[in-house]
Design brief:
Blueprint: E1 3-4, E2 15-23, E3 26-31, H1 40-50, H2 58-63, E4 65-67, H3 68-86, H4 89-98, H5 126-130, E5 135-137, H6 148-151, H7 156-168, H8 174-185, H9 192-201, E6 206-212, E7 215-222, E8 225-229, E9 243-245, E10 254-256, H10 270-295, E11 328-329, H11 343-380, E12 395-396
Parallel strand pairs: 1-12, 5-6
Antiparallel strand pairs: 2-3, 2-4, 6-7, 7-8, 8-9, 9-10, 10-11
InterPro entries: MINDY (IPR007518), MINDY_domain (IPR033979)
Organism: Triparma columacea
GO biological process, one term: protein K48-linked deubiquitination
């Protein structure tokens, strides 16, 4: 699964806003998303910051902004200091070569039957090894599932290539139909088995980087609950909202503060956050639709597009701890539960909406650019052959 760098006209794609949060009684200065979205460099750096393995320059904390160059320098120096002790010069060299690309995209190819750490290994994953931060996912198949023997043979890229090859050859095999059904039924890229596997795999109070739908997030297990660090720029000034619970597979969430307690201001942000989630989901759906449309001229209509993140999947939604409420579930306000909005809250909501509209505009531009590039490649491609071709599937990192 290839993540494509986000093209943006913003001049600040190499800057990250800094937010001070509470973490087990201490202050930590974490990084918020920029126009490149939840990128691997951001998730990795925040995991190391929370481990107290690295810290941002005092200048960056005072200014409230850190640059991409700051992060590369900090991580490179940390790796050199630790690598000298461990004798990992080869890994350090690979790390220095990879770091400059991690603020935008990363090639990740999950394997469905190798547990939460199952990926096709490439040099691009070296940073996670060097710093001892696991890259995990939850797109896992239960060994008792009838599809397990088939899916065990493929990574994500190989599975998509098998489906495309089957359709291109005019032979819709049982394997191809089964594979397509699996992708359609797990469009969230998180299964119930994957969620339980994450709980089993991660020890208490462990930090990791979580990959899902081409997004990279800092993951933390605390008191038998999985939490994702909230880094959306809309929350940069909201100190009370720090984590969101990863307790089900459908995207519904609950927010907590730095001490993993229900934030007192949660109701004030119910409306804004509901709009935020809906807008991002709509942008993702539009982008995936554009990608699927770009494939249509060269592929049969039954070829599956890259799985989308949104409603309509067939897998049953399940909660890890259905009897334990974590934080405050955010839902659209009603006439009885919507609190009176202050002038400051209204201003914040308007700013959120402006940010969302700008992000939506960038996503639409990227979708059009991607479709143009795919159509151009389709015109230049030779007719399909029967021998195995390299995978050319790609996803978007927003």
């Amino acid at each position: 699964m290839t993540t494509t760098p986000l093209t943006s006209t913003s001049p600040n794609t190499d800057e990250y806003e800094v937010k001070c949060i509470a973490f087990f009684g201490d202050d930590r200065s974490i990084l918020m998303q920029n126009a490149n979205g939840p990128c691997p460099l951001l998730a990795l750096a925040n995991a190391l910051i929370l481990r107290n393995a690295i810290s941002l320059p005092k200048r960056a904390i005072a200014m409230g902004k850190a640059t991409f160059s700051d992060l590369v320098e900090i991580l490179s120096n940390k790796a050199l200091d630790d690598g000298g002790e461990r004798g990992r010069s080869a890994d350090i060299e690979a790390l220095v070569n990879v770091l400059p690309s991690l603020n935008k995209g990363l090639d990740v190819n999950p394997k469905f039957c190798n547990g939460v750490t199952g990926y096709e290994y490439t040099d691009k994953l070296v940073p996670f090894d060097v710093f001892g931060v696991e890259l995990v996912h939850g797109w896992c198949v239960d060994p008792s599932d009838p599809t397990f023997p088939l899916l065990k043979k493929y990574s994500y890229n190989q599975l998509v290539e098998m489906i495309i090859s089957s359709q291109s050859n005019g032979e819709t095999t049982v394997e191809a139909e089964t594979a397509k059904s699996f992708l359609d039924g797990s469009a969230h890229q998180l299964t119930y088995h994957g969620l339980t596997s994450l709980h089993t795999h991660l020890p208490e109070n462990t930090l990791a980087v979580f990959f899902r739908n081409n997004h990279f997030s800092t993951l933390f297990k605390h008191e038998d609950t999985l939490f994702l660090l909230v880094t959306d720029q809309g929350y940069a000034t909201v100190r009370e909202i720090v984590w969101e619970a990863l307790s089900n597979i459908d995207g519904d969430t609950a927010y907590v503060d730095g001490e993993f307690k229900t934030p007192s201001i949660a109701d004030d942000y119910t409306y804004s956050n509901s709009n935020l989630n809906n807008t991002h989901a709509s942008a993702d759906d539009a982008l995936q639709a554009a990608i699927a449309a770009s494939l249509q001229p060269s592929l049969p209509s039954s070829i599956p597009s890259v799985p989308t993140y949104g409603p309509g999947h067939s897998e049953t939604v399940a909660s890890i701890s259905p009897n334990v409420a974590v934080g405050v579930a955010l839902s659209p306000p009603t006439s009885t539960n919507k609190p009176p909005a202050s002038d400051e809250q209204i201003a914040q909501q308007l700013q959120y909406q402006l940010n969302l509209e700008e992000r939506s505009r960038r996503d639409e531009e990227l979708a059009r650019q991607y479709q143009t590039e795919e159509n151009q490649r389709g015109r230049e491609q030779e007719p399909p052959r029967r021998e195995k071709k390299k995978s050319d599937s790609s996803c978007i990192l927003s």
